[in-house]
């Protein structure tokens, strides 16, 4: 072999070796799982997707919120720092949590807490809850494939079918389920002494939440627990499509467009939309002047939705699911019935759009 060719081949081999060395040195090392990060005192990014208990409603101040207690307890023991991300809303269901999460920009999350069930049981059956809770877990796995998932069974949840849904889906998605009814029972204190309103924990109730979470994380660290979420084939998980439809089919003259919301205070007034899909939600403003609206799908009464809330807030409300996947018409009609909490002389309805697939 001629010297020139030999030199050329050796040069290629040398360049290839240099390239491999460069990749070995500069390639990104695998991220440690959340338990290793906590134990090593590293920064942890975590997300809470939930309802009022997810946001610690009922705590007397910020220092007594369950997630603040968890952060302080783990930092005291292991050092490190926590960066908190919240997708929470009082009164929210898994439907609203999913919709808000899809519009949230959080990324590089190590740990996700999912806190739903108490509100969901008021608006849907266990099969509908299964569909929405599973869809929420799908979305989380797709967006944060290496995050540890912790599902919370709320202390106030007494619907066994909903509890079973959370337990079963937690198992299917390798999530750690923490049943907060257990520490409440073990405390031997009455519900009145652990909550403000028989639902939302008080300061001591949230202390029990925090201690249960810290103990769960401590045990996981001690047992060198592996995060298994990443073993779920992401290409086999589908994200539920949720489209926002702003185009109404028909509307009564009493509805006026005010800052993007069709607004009326006239009982009996209607606004109709046409949609294709198996589920339905609606974007509204809830306020102290909020009224009720009767919902008809394909001319059949479906439900009545209240838009009362103690303060003004944009909300994405669940209407129904389990519909036949075809074209539908939905009519929202301002009801003569009034929320007992509405002490104003108005029954205001403000709708911007519907949510469908």
Could you write a compact summary of the structure shown?
This protein has 357 residues and is α/β, with parallel strands linked by helices. It has helices at residues 3-26, 34-39, 66-78, 94-102, 120-123, 126-143, 160-172, 181-186, 191-194, 203-222; strands spanning 43-50, 81-88, 111-115, 148-153, 176-179, 243-245, 250-251, 256-258, 261-264, 270-286, 292-297, 300-306, 313-334, 349-356.
Shape: globular
Order of helices and strands: HHEHEHEHHEHEHHHEEEEEEEEE
- SS strand fraction: 25-35%
**Total tally of structural domains:** 2
**Cα end-to-end separation:** 67 Å
Q: Tell me the name of the CATH class of the largest domain.
A: Alpha Beta
* CATH H-level superfamily title of the largest domain: SGNH hydrolase
Helix fraction? Answer: 25-40%
| Computed structural class | alpha/beta
Give a short account of the largest sheet.
Answer: 9 strands, antiparallel
What is the count of helical runs?
10
Low-confidence stretches: 22-30
Report Rg: 25 Å
CATH level-two architecture of the largest domain: 3-Layer(aba) Sandwich
CATH topology descriptor of the largest domain:
Rossmann fold
The tally of strands reads 14
Determine the mean pLDDT. 92
* Quaternary form: single chain
């Amino acid at each position: 072999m001629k010297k020139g060719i030999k030199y050329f081949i050796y040069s290629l081999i040398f360049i290839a070796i240099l390239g491999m060395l460069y990749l070995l040195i500069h390639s990104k090392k695998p991220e440690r799982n959340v338990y290793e990060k906590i134990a090593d005192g590293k920064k942890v990014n975590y997300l809470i997707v939930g309802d009022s208990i997810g946001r610690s409603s009922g705590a007397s101040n910020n220092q007594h919120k369950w997630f603040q207690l968890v952060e302080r307890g783990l930092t005291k023991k292991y050092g490190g720092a926590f960066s908190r991300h919240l997708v929470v809303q009082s009164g929210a269901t898994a439907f609203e949590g999913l919709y808000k999460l899809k519009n949230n920009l959080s990324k590089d999350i190590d740990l996700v807490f999912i806190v739903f069930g108490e509100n969901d049981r008021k608006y849907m059956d266990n099969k509908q809850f299964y569909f929405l809770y599973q869809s929420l877990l799908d979305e989380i796995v797709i967006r944060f494939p290496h995050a540890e998932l912790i599902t919370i069974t709320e202390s106030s949840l007494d619907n066994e079918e909903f509890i079973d849904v959370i337990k079963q889906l937690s198992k299917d998605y390798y999530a750690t389920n923490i049943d907060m009814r257990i520490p409440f029972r073990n405390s031997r204190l009455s519900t009145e002494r652990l909550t403000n309103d028989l639902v939302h924990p008080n300061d001591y109730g949230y202390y029990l939440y925090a201690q249960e979470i810290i103990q769960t994380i401590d045990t996981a660290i001690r047992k060198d627990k592996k995060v298994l979420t990443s073993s779920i084939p992401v290409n086999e998980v589908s994200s539920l499509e949720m489209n926002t439809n702003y185009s109404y089919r028909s509307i009564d003259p009493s509805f006026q467009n005010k800052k993007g919301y069709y607004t009326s205070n006239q009982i009996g007034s209607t606004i109709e939309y046409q949609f294709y899909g198996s589920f339905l939600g609606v974007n509204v403003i809830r306020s102290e002047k909020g009224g009720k609206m009767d919902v008809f799908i394909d001319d059949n009464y479906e439900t009545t939705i209240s838009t009362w809330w103690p303060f003004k807030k944009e909300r994405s409300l669940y209407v129904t699911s389990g519909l036949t996947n075809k074209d539908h018409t939905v009519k929202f009609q301002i009801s003569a019935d009034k929320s007992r909490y509405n002490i104003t002389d108005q029954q205001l309805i403000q709708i911007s759009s519907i949510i469908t697939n």
